[in-house]
Amino acid sequence: MELSPQDATLAAYERGAQQYAERTAAAPAPEVDALLARVPAGAHVLELGSGPGRDAGALESAGLTVDRTDGAAAFVEAQRAAGHQARVLDVRSADFGGPYDAVFANAVLLHVPRADLPGVLATARRACRPDGVLVASFKKGAGDAWTQVKLDDPRHFTYWDEAGLTAALTAAGWTPEQVAESTLPASAERWITAIARNEASLPA
Fold this sequence. Notes:
Elements lengths: L4 H18 L8 H6 L7 E4 L6 H8 L3 E6 L2 H9 L4 E3 L11 E6 L11 H10 L1 E12 L4 E4 L7 E4 L3 H10 L3 E8 L8 E7 L7
Parallel strand pairs: 1-2, 1-4, 2-3, 4-5
Antiparallel strand pairs: 5-9, 6-7, 8-9
């Protein structure tokens, strides 16, 4: 039976986890600083798609507690082998656990099909405390495509623009704070950083 684009992408990460780690820049994503500026000291963060654990390490070094998760068991096993607690969590799951002060998703929700993203974002919001924050990054563009950049194995991406992401966040119950193109000097691709609050769960 033919795999869905998401399952095929997960399989690519399972096979190429070590190669992905070797080809990932050591410097944390700029979204790390965006999150640190918006949560209290000691905040409890759910990271979707921890991958090699680079950003989780930076957040933990800043005093946050990070629930490291990934849809690929190979990444989870590598993080456990390095002494970290981690669990397998597919973003298509109906429950992410929690409650958390924030959900951090750097370059992971871009694998979710366009029609499914509002549902995934709604699950993330349910995992957040009132006034909790979401920080996520997406590839900027139109449509969707397969690519073998970074991994010698095809992965599927959905591309977004600011208006589309803002609508998806709003449909999921988030209050967008910032949805704007982010600057990554080392990348030939364009990216969008999305930041939103869980104001829908605040008491009236």
